[in-house]
């Protein structure tokens, strides 16, 4: 058997409730991107040894570690796994586009299909539990399965509940949050991504420390966020109201946990956001802990103009800007033989 999985990536626009006074925390807003994505080919081979092929100049051994961890979850070992896994295309790590969640889900999904595990294809809940993702935000997990514009409802919070502390997905065993809202955005809209050459986004121990230090956020912030999400953002997405969606994205950068994320990057980073908006960007948001920034364009012509403007703003060598689009479907899974 041989199959190919091509994942999307995602924008994480904001966490909603990092206060917890109602007995729930987290909750997320985000949407799915058509690219970049992981392209991985899985195939059965005669050799009993597991084989993993990675792109040239690929750094780190985290793919191998994830594969070994997943095989253990399936009660197998690398010595008995008669398969080859070839990573053809990648999403850069720690830039805010959800690389690890998409990689982990694709590996767990592809391996389970190759092994023809009982119940294959496995459900979202089972695959998420295998790779331990989705414990704070459900945007990445939902993007992998169905794509689109997503709002999830977070987790029960308190002693003996799903979560008893403020932790990122990488350190939480909670199940993916329930999807409260999912819709699609126009095919002609485009997303411009700008990745300034800065320190990578927070992860691992640093990410956990930020959650501990910045939470709980003021209840007033949560109330304002909830109000604008329910009464402005959701109707705007339903009605494809470009201007209102952009207003909401701009507001997200000024309040709650997202404001803390941006403040940690310093004034020069916030100045970059302002400069791009002054140059014509209808809104600028930071996804996750960054450093990737994003804006929305009505069409490809506007997207090209916005890319050129941010290229002019980002002077550091190694900075990158590109145009993508929103994806209203999940990962593409194709059987090749």
Helix/strand structural class:
alpha+beta
Mean pLDDT: 92
Using the CA coordinates, give the radius of gyration. Answer: 20 Å
Could you name the CATH topology of the largest domain? Answer: Ribosomal Protein S5, domain 2
Amount of helix: 25-40%
CATH architect. name of the largest domain: 2-Layer Sandwich
Q: List how many beta strands DSSP finds.
A: 14
The total of helices stands at 10
| SSE sequence, one letter per element | EEEEEHEHHHEEEEHHHHHEEHEE
Q: Give a quick account of the main beta sheet: strands, pairing sense, barrel closure.
A: 5 strands, mixed
Shape: globular
Q: Spans with pLDDT under 50 lasting ≥5 residues?
A: none
For the record, the CATH class of the largest domain is Alpha Beta
The side-by-side strand order for the widest beta sheet comes to 5-6-4-1-14
Counted up, domains total 2
Distance between the termini: 5 Å
- The percent range for strand residues is 15-25%
Topology:
Layout: E1 2-6, E2 9-17, E3 24-33, E4 39-44, E5 51-53, H1 62-73, E6 83-89, H2 99-115, H3 124-131, H4 139-145, E7 149-152, E8 155-156, E9 179-183, E10 190-195, H5 204-214, H6 219-239, H7 242-252, H8 256-263, H9 267-278, E11 285-286, E12 293-297, H10 300-313, E13 320-324, E14 332-335
Parallel strand pairs: 5-6
Antiparallel strand pairs: 1-4, 1-14, 2-3, 3-7, 3-8, 4-6, 7-9, 10-12, 10-13, 11-12
Helix pairs in contact: 1-2, 2-3, 6-7
């Amino acid at each position: 058997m041989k199959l190919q999985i091509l994942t999307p990536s995602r924008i994480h626009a904001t966490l909603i409730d990092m206060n917890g006074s109602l007995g729930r925390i987290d909750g997320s807003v985000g949407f799915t991107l058509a690219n970049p994505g992981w392209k991985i080919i899985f195939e059965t081979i005669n050799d009993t040894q597991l084989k993993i092929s990675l792109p040239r100049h690929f750094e780190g051994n985290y793919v191998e570690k994830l594969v070994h961890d997943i095989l253990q979850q399936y009660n197998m070992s690398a010595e008995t796994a008669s398969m080859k896994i070839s990573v053809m295309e990648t999403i850069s790590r720690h830039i805010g586009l959800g690389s690890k969640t998409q990689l982990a889900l694709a590996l767990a999904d592809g391996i389970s299909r190759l092994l023809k595990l009982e119940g294959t294809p496995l459900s979202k809940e089972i695959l998420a539990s295998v790779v331990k993702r989705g414990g704070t935000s459900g945007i990445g997990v939902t993007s992998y399965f169905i794509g689109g514009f997503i709002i999830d409802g977070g987790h029960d919070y308190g002693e003996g509940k799903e979560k008893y502390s403020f932790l990122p997905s990488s350190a939480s065993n909670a199940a993916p949050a329930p999807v409260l809202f999912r819709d699609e955005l126009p095919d002609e809209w485009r997303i411009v991504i700008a990745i300034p050459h800065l320190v990578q986004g927070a992860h691992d121990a640093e990410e956990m420390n930020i959650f501990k230090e910045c939470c709980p956020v003021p209840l007033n912030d949560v109330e304002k966020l909830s109000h604008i999400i329910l009464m402005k953002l959701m109707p705007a997405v339903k009605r494809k109201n470009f201007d209102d969606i952009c207003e909401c994205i701009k507001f997200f950068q000024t309040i709650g946990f997202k404001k803390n994320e941006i403040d940690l990057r310093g004034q020069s980073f916030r100045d970059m956001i302002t400069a791009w908006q002054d140059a014509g960007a209808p809104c600028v948001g930071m996804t996750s802990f960054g450093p990737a920034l994003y804006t929305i364009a009505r069409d490809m012509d506007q997207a090209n103009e916005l890319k050129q403007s941010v290229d002019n703003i980002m002077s550091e060598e190694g900075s990158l800007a590109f145009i993508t689009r929103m994806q209203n479907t999940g990962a593409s899974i194709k059987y090749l033989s």
